[in-house]
Amino acid sequence: MSDTTTARPRAVLVLNGPNLNLLGTREPAIYGHTTLADIEARLVAEGAALGIEVRCAQSNHEGALIDALHAARAWAGGVIFNPGGYTHTSIALHDAVAAIGLPVIEVHLSNIDAREEFRHRGYVARVCQGSIRGFGWRSYWLGLHALAHILPPPPTE
Ligand code: CA2
Question: Architecture of domain 11-149 in CATH?
């Protein structure tokens, strides 16, 4: 029997950091042609198929990302997070992920380990459940499927 009072909600925040609102408009060789709105729509649809509510947010501001992570505690069972350039600089986002007590999957469109040296260091992934990088928009799709296995199964009839 499942414990419905403490079980994580089957709801996921998909959170994107700085400049990811420009996806599909610039640098398609690195980041692909898919827009952020397209990615979000695909995740909402895939979430529905998996019995997971998906809500999406993007901000270019570090504090707003921290606020979104804090707010997720009230409704989400997990987070898919692309911190963008803050991946490589932000101890504040590391601390926020560590503080919320939710499983967070860090995702990246590009393979950050195969790019410039300054992208090899990251703070956020150290406190995440796992990280997925290098698969374009499908990194998010894989992250959603990873969370689908971490969250409690949907109720059976
Ligand atoms: O590969 C990823 O997902 C990144 O998080 C993307 C960040 C980069 O700083 C990280 O090292 C890896 C950059 C996002 C910039 O997105 C743009 C999209 C279109 C045009 C220009 C930038």
Answer: 3-Layer(aba) Sandwich (3.40)
Write the pLDDT tens digit of every residue in 5-36. Answer: 568 899 999 999 999 999 998 888 888 899 99
Alpha-carbon distance of 30 to 13, in angstroms, equals 25
Report CA-CA distances (Å) from 1 to 76, 142, 148, 151, 156: 22, 28, 19, 15, 12
The token pair that represents 137 in the structure block: 């928009």
Strands (DSSP E) found in 40-88: 53-58, 78-82
User: Could you tell me the residue ranges of all domains in the chain?
Assistant: 11-149
Pocket lining: 132 vs ligand 1, CB cutoff 6 Å:
no
Residues lower than pLDDT 70 in the chain: 1-6, 157
Counting ligand 1 atoms within 8 A of each CB, the residue from 107, 112, 119, 128 with the most, and so the one to mutate, is 112
State which ligand 1 atom lies nearest to the alpha carbon of 18.
14
Cβ–ligand 1 distance for 82 under 6 Å, the answer: yes
The amino acid sitting at 42 is R
In the set 94, 108, 123, 140, the catalytic residue is 108
